């Protein structure tokens, strides 16, 4: 597909997911309660672990609370819409965030393997929010722009080494057949230990779920996220 056609295709996908208002309204400031504080602390942990820009915003909330500031509206209003939307189901979001914190702060996979897998999931799901956010995170993990371009192509790109190709192929096989094939598994097992192999499958499933709710809720991009155009 040439560049012009790809730009048009991405624009259509963005219009499909981002063209209308989100399907569920984000939590308003006057609906926020102290019961949600533990969830905010979880989100701080997960965003600090990947050096995400939301970490400072979340810390502002807890700092304001600790200082007893009477008017929290300005601070809370800065929270990303995704967080305020998922606060509509805080118990579920907290449990899912627990998994995310474990994968990102205690995970056995290298940051490179993790982000390559997440990006391939995001591209296969054509998830603008997830793709755009993790392109930025992947760059911090040392994944170059040229490699991001090749992740779009996937395991078929001839430039990958055997291990990187197997990471991408594992995502593709789980996405298409709900199972990693024996040949791919053998290549992965040559470098990954048993805990890492288990974690890889859970990681892929976790970010498939994230893509599902981000796309279906029509969550809007923010803070420089370029969606599927990001490289």
Automatic annotation (TrEMBL):
<dbReference type="InterPro" id="IPR003779">
    <property type="entry name" value="CMD-like"/>
</dbReference>
<dbReference type="GO" id="GO:0051920">
    <property type="term" value="F:peroxiredoxin activity"/>
</dbReference>
<feature type="domain" description="Carboxymuconolactone decarboxylase-like">
    <location>
        <begin position="90"/>
        <end position="165"/>
    </location>
</feature>
<dbReference type="Pfam" id="PF02627">
    <property type="entry name" value="CMD"/>
</dbReference>
<dbReference type="InterPro" id="IPR029032">
    <property type="entry name" value="AhpD-like"/>
</dbReference>
<protein>
    <recommendedName>
        <fullName>Carboxymuconolactone decarboxylase-like domain-containing protein</fullName>
    </recommendedName>
</protein>
